[in-house]
Amino acid sequence: MRHLFSKFHFVFNFSKLSISTTRNSGSVESSLQKLEQLSLAKLANNPYIVTPEAWVTTLSKVEHDNVDIIRLNPDIFRHAPRLDLLHRNVTWQLNYRNLQLTKQLTRAEMPGGGKKPWPQKKTGRAHVGSIRSPQFIRGGFAHGVRGPKTWFYMLPDAIRLKGLCVALTIKHIQNDLVIVDDFSTLESDSKDFLNDIAESRNWGYSVLFVEENAEVAANLVKATEDLPSFNIMPLYGLNCFSIMKYDTLVLSKKALLKLEERILFHFNRSETLLKKYKYKDIKEKILNEGSDENNEKYAPFI
């Protein structure tokens, strides 16, 4: 699975499954404990479910420096390996933002061709009314592409949630999931120091660092600027495509706790996970994405 999506060279960050991001770490841990109570009975009565664990390491030195061990939720990190759900998520992320702007002109929209090229009869030629007819070289198109055309659609929340759990399970089982106590423990902002850490710990060529929010340690930002295969992403942008694209997924401890809280919240919410999204319901929101930009007409494409 490591090289399954190695040919893709871009990342699209999209996450609708989120709750309030203004909580501190204490409230996150307390709410996470409440959500875990819902699955305790199921875990206690099932002898085949083993609670997964992961080392918590630090970035203060090049060699491995494990400082703690953390228990992971089996509903998230021991999900059934449904590769079909993972494929549906990746295909959705690659297709739903595509937009075809090609518009082929018809005979009526082509310039010129207003005069009849030759008389209707007594020439031995076919009856033609305009040189812009589809049979001519520079004529219009009879059944051409009429853009803009979009392939936009939304997957149900259940498919996106389970696909995310499948991707996280695969990363943890393959030992490609790293938990860091805090990214601020990175002592140097040199790219060589971070590259040495990745080589000594066998992280692979590409690494994705995920933080709790958009505020990331300055040393980590500086070190990854000159490393094209190292990327930083806030938790609200985590998605299946990004997880499978990079060789190693590095999560901070706070990001891990908030990730488990959000996924368990949506797994146990009262609203259905099979809600059908219609384009007309979110059309106004999409069209108003550039309302806060400097140029409302030519807003950045998201």
From TrEMBL:
GO BP annotations, alphabetical order: translation
Keyword Ribosomal protein: yes
InterPro entries in the cross-refs: Ribosomal_uL4, Ribosomal_uL4-like, Ribosomal_uL4_dom_sf
UniProt subcellular location: Mitochondrion
Example GO molecular function: structural constituent of ribosome
Keywords: Mitochondrion, Ribonucleoprotein, Ribosomal protein
Transmembrane segments: none
GO cellular component: mitochondrial inner membrane; ribonucleoprotein complex; ribosome
Keyword hit for Ribonucleoprotein: yes
Family: Belongs to the universal ribosomal protein uL4 family.
NCBIfam families: rplD_bact
Protein's recorded name: Large ribosomal subunit protein uL4m
Source species: Strongyloides ratti (Parasitic roundworm)
Lineage of the species this protein comes from: Eukaryota, Metazoa, Ecdysozoa, Nematoda, Chromadorea
